[in-house]
Amino acid sequence: MKLTSATCIAAICVPVLIAACSVSETPLGTGVPSNPDGADAGPDATTKAPTPPAPFPDGAADPPDGDSPAPDASTADADAGPLVCNAGFADCDKIAANGCETNLGNDPLHCGACSHACVAGGSCASATCTPQVLAWDLYDDSGRMRVFGDSLFLGTNGGLMRVKKDGSSSQVWINNFSRDSFFEVVGDRVYASGCYASLAAQGPSTCFDNDSVSDTPVATDGTDVYYFHGYPRSALYAVPVAGGATRVVTSTTVQQPLFLAIVGGRAYYQDYYANTWSIGTDGTGLAALPQVTVGLRKVSSTLLFGTKTGAMIAFDTVAGTESTFLQDPKIDRYTIFTVTDTDVFYSGNGVGIRRAPRSGAAATTLSKEDALARLVDGGWLYFAAWGPDKNGKQGSLVRIPLP
Length: 403
Description:
Mean pLDDT: 75
């Protein structure tokens, strides 16, 4: 592609209506293609010096001159090697003739990376997809979130809301439900505040403990549902999913419990001051964990948590070992975590929503908004956004595709 008019920004020629600098037939968004032997083609008087090649996709350094791999036919012709793109541009269509044609900063079909498409009708700014709003007017910044079938359930000040994943509909599913309510989905039921209700069909709630408080955590091992009884000092109780009487797991109370996870026959829980304990689900072996933690979550037999010093820890409950895979000074006692098999998503304290691979790779920012509730499902990140809504109320549920 030959540029007949251009302007010069940061030593890069880009097309505009008025010619401001001379150009050669250099593809937009690139210096010049590299030769097959690894040496860059020499610049002429009208082109800038070529930008050094970016690292290979696996993070390894470029090979020494003479060891460059053979050019890929999809990105270069017989006379040129792989295209060397300037930062923020890429050869997404694999046609060497038009160079690094894609601006990853604002292309909704290639937002931040080739083939990372924003939702239909969505836009791309600063290499980040603009969130798609699924539901408005959630009465306040929304609380916890779970998925069931084709819908998301999340706590709001107007009740437990059901929102279709595609945003086609939303409704209050359970009244008398606070955004602060912890809840857990087991089968087709939702458990919260000492009661449960069906997610398959609307109907009245069935309560099994009238002294359970909404803003204490709930967890399950599939057989029993574990919850806290009493407030502000609470004891750990359990009730069978199949029905039956509640039982006391431990009568040792904690101050305002915040997190609870059931892993390998033990309950791990945390109080308002980020002190953490574990106890067997049969009520034996109560022990304090040596590490003061925040944001307790589990994946299979691994427990993930942060520390007050900004570290993210993976604790193998089988081997009894722990390892640090992330250090971020923004992690504190108020940090909220969402975990998958490969990543941890976290927000709070002004960091926006960040994605940290459990492999130890660097964390990346997915959204500049902090979010109290997040859920990852089917290649999407769903989160409850802060701030005023279109009708003056606060809170909206949005989603963005994951890179």
